[in-house]
UniProtKB/TrEMBL annotation:
Gene3D superfamilies, per the entry: Homocysteine-binding-like domain
Species of provenance: Rhinocladiella mackenziei CBS 650.93
Domain Hcy-binding: 6-315
InterPro entries listed in its UniProt record: HCY_dom (IPR003726), HCY_dom_sf (IPR036589)
Keyword 4Fe-4S: no
MF terms (GO), sorted A to Z: metal ion binding; methyltransferase activity
Entry cofactors: Zn(2+)
Name of this chain's protein: Hcy-binding domain-containing protein
A Pfam family reported for this protein in Swiss-Prot or TrEMBL: S-methyl_trans
Binding positions for Zn(2+) per the UniProt entry: C230, C300, C301
Length: 316
């Protein structure tokens, strides 16, 4: 299928910030009562009830973009859809690649229903880490090993017609390098988004600045831009203030958590910490001043349309 924006991404060709979504998976689990093994939302597309829930989630964020007359990036439900997750989720490799294609087709249907001239909808093919994002356990794999794992998924997403790729919630630069090299091979733009701990560093202790430099050096700066997701602004704001301006300018997307709690605390929590939507929205005003290359803003775990509306009201 033909990708609509692959060769002209709105966020790279506009001075206006684009929006993206909030924490769809946490909404599905804590508010809608769905069970998501391995935090994978893609299998919901195999049932009418799950498909309707996902459509409602995406529509709630698109409505915000429509009100503010801003573009929005929607992510496919494929964060847990590389072949390394097949056994854990009970899929064959062929079934998993079909699910990737189905996720793209689903969002293309959503785009046809909601897109307007003032609100372009970019469909991004979402890749995720190869292990638990809160536990760095893939260090034994080389870049080439990781390329082999991601290849089928990237090919499926690209052939299905995504506009771009994203790889999110990374705690390891090796996964990032593998994904960027594949994006380059397939001729598609990619966002690389790291998650940081409460000290502003990756799980393995690497600084965000060093992580970005490492990926850019290994890939000839091919990534369209970098991002931070699954962390509260209070965790990374001090880090941003100390970063080299040339590296800071490479950060183009922020998807913040609602909660100020650590990943370990959130992982062990039995309830959803929504934080303070108003405070989260205000924090993005400071981030805009710090990040000259910021292109896309939205939420991550614990956030819902109220949080994204608060963010949009402060920056749009």
């Amino acid at each position: 299928m033909q990708a609509k924006y692959r060769h002209s991404l709105p966020q790279l060709n506009s001075s206006n910030l684009l929006l993206t979504e909030g924490g769809i998976e946490t909404t599905l689990v804590y508010k809608k009562g769905f069970h998501l093994p391995e935090f994978a939302s893609g299998p919901l597309l195999l049932t009418p009830e799950g498909t309707k829930a996902l459509q409602d989630c995406h529509a709630s964020y698109i409505d915000i973009a429509l009100r503010h007359k801003r573009g929005i990036i929607v992510e496919t439900q494929t964060w847990r859809s590389s072949r390394i997750w097949c056994d854990k989720l009970g899929f064959s490799e062929n079934e998993m690649m079909k699910l990737n294609r189905r996720a793209v087709a689903f969002l293309e249907d959503v785009r046809r229903e909601y897109e307007t001239d003032t609100t372009p909808i970019v469909v991004s093919g979402n890749l995720g880490p190869l292990s638990d994002a809160y536990h760095n356990s893939t260090q034994r794999l080389s870049v080439q090993d990781m390329i082999a794992v991601y290849r089928d998924q990237v090919q499926a997403l690209c052939e299905a017609g995504v506009d771009m790729l994203s790889i999110m919630t990374l705690a390891d630069t090796t996964e990032a390098i593998a994904a960027v090299q594949l994006a380059k091979e397939f001729g598609i733009q990619i966002l690389v988004s790291f998650s940081v701990e409460t000290d502003g560093k990756l799980l393995n202790g690497v600084t965000l600045e060093d992580a970005i430099r490492t990926v850019d050096k290994a890939t000839e700066s091919y990534a369209a831009y970098f991002g931070i997701n699954c962390a509260h602004p209070s965790h990374f704001h001090p880090t941003l203030r100390m970063m080299d301006p040339s590296v800071l300018s490479r950060i183009g997307e922020i998807r913040a958590n609602a909660s100020r709690r650590s990943h370990q605390e959130l992982d062990n929590s039995e309830f959803l910490d929504r934080g303070d939507p108003t405070d989260l929205g205000r924090s993005f005003k400071d981030l805009i001043q710090l990040l000259p290359g910021l292109k896309v803003v939205g939420g991550c775990c614990g956030t819902d349309p109220e949080h994204v509306e608060a963010i949009a009201s402060n920056v749009c």
